[in-house]
Amino acid sequence: MKKRGIGYAATFYGTGYGNGFPDESRATVEINANGEIILSVEVSDVGSGGISVMWQIASETLNIDRNLIKLQYDNTSKMLDSGTAAASRQTYNTGNAVLDACKKIKINIDKYYNKVEIIKNKKVLTELYQKFISDNQELKYEGYFKATTSQVDLETGIGEPYWPYTFGINRAIVEVDCETGKVDVIDVVAVYDAGKIVNPVLAEGQIIGGVSMGMGYAIMEEVNVLKGSIKNCNYSDYIIPTSKDMPKVTTYFVEANEASGPYGAKGLGEPAMLPTAPAILNAIYDAIGVRLTEFPATCDRILLELKNKGV
Amino acid sequence: MIKVTMTVNGKLYTREIPPMMRLLDFIRDELKLKGTKEGCGEGECGACTVIIDGDIYNSCMVLATSCEGKRITTIEGISGAELHPIQEAFLEVNAVQCGYCTPGMILSAKALLDKNINATEKEMKEAISGNLCRCTGYQKIIEAVKLAQKKLKKR
Predict the structure, then answer these.
(1) Does the CB of B139 have a partner CB in chain A at under 8 Å?
(2) Which pLDDT does position A74 carry in this prediction?
(3) Rounded to two decimals, what is the model's pTM?
């Protein structure tokens, strides 16, 4: 017999390295004779969308069309350190450094160009460059951001390990086959407060990907370690979700403004997968009344728990 | 060394190759077509998917010499001056994150839609189920295949 259940789980997760670890990002922006803005920022983008996000923040701040902004991001010998693409920190931390650099050059751009219209013409930038040269203005500006973080006192528990926090909740609907122990995840709704969402399309992609990883974590993926070596290090025995396993995922964002973030944004990378697995386990409990305390909820574990319960 | 002749992306190639060379290495190292990716190298992940005479194969599991006289399509071969509608659709719905699975996904989708332009969502999921993706959660990839189906029907 197949039984359905609904489960919820919530998460809150700090943006950045945290716990007092120095968390710094840098970026530079310059105007050149060719009528281009060169934004140099060491944002590693392995599919997370960091490049697009930095580009958007620069374009918005400078009021200059994206096509006139050249983004350099792939040569660490030519640019300043923006830290790692880790800890859900690029949009918030590095985004803030880009914002800082762009604000600095914008003050001087405003002296010569004070129209509301976005700059789309290369000629305008070439003229700006000429004026920067003739008035002896700096051509290159450095942006910097350091996150607020302090180590937690282990005695008192007092400290500010992270700033800011991202909040999220998942609702999962599962179907458990009581004869085979197989769990199917039917539907997941994911709601997040990651501040202002800089790029909604990319952010939605992050969430669906996170749900897929969270689902693998909950019902499929198990690392079998024997005497320090992993016994299932191939895709044939370490099973991850395929297109046929994925539930329907619906994503919502509660865009509560984060005052310290670039345009109100917070980190989103890691929180995207956190509530999925506990929501699925809660849904399994709702469906068949057994509380699994070990991941993943494989057929053998489910059947064993059902047997122990005497069902 | 063994002489092998096959058509790749409409062009006839003849090469002298070691008998145990995989089709994947033939495509990447002999023909220098780097769009075909190697993922697991053992036929599980689908990153190296190519189309051989209309069917999809993991090119890491195929010996190049077994492709004598066959017609191979790689990701480089599906577009001309303009992108193929499936590629357009992948861009439009943001079905790409890190991009490593994308060539294989697009070829699996193409093989399906070439055979059955009226494929259902279930058939689409089945068609790309041999292509693993760790970033996207597949949802937007399926959306892209649906959009590509609409585009191809209009043509």
Answers:
(1) yes
(2) 84
(3) 0.95
